[in-house]
Specification:
Largest sheet: none
Organism: Caecibacteroides pullorum
Keywords: Ribonucleoprotein, Ribosomal protein, RNA-binding, rRNA-binding
Strand content: under 5%
GO molecular function: small ribosomal subunit rRNA binding; structural constituent of ribosome
Oligomer: single chain
Shape: elongated
Region (Disordered): 1-20
Family: Belongs to the bacterial ribosomal protein bS20 family.
Helix content: over 70%
Distance between the termini: 58 Å
Length: 84
């Protein structure tokens, strides 16, 4: 167990950040899954901008790496273009 006030505070902050990051990481994964499962092109096109915004925001705050965000955006755009 930590002995210093500052280390106790650091532990509290890290736990809070971890839970925040887990929530948004899971939200992002579910949104990607939902878009990939969509077979309707119009629905996928309307979902895409919101997902891009979420990915960019998570990359900016280092929840995910910026290259991962760009790779996901690229793959999802290809998926949408392949839909009939």
């Amino acid at each position: 167990m930590a002995n210093h006030k500052s280390s106790l505070k650091r532990i509290r902050q890290e736990e809070k950040r971890r839970l925040h990051n887990r929530y948004y990481g899971k939200t992002m994964r579910n949104a990607v899954r939902k878009l990939r499962a969509t077979t309707d092109k119009a629905a996928a096109v309307s979902m895409y901008p919101g997902l891009v915004k979420l990915l960019d925001k998570l990359a900016k705050t280092n929840v995910i790496h910026k290259n991962k965000a760009n790779n996901l955006k690229s793959k999802l755009a290809l998926h949408i273009n392949k839909l009939a």
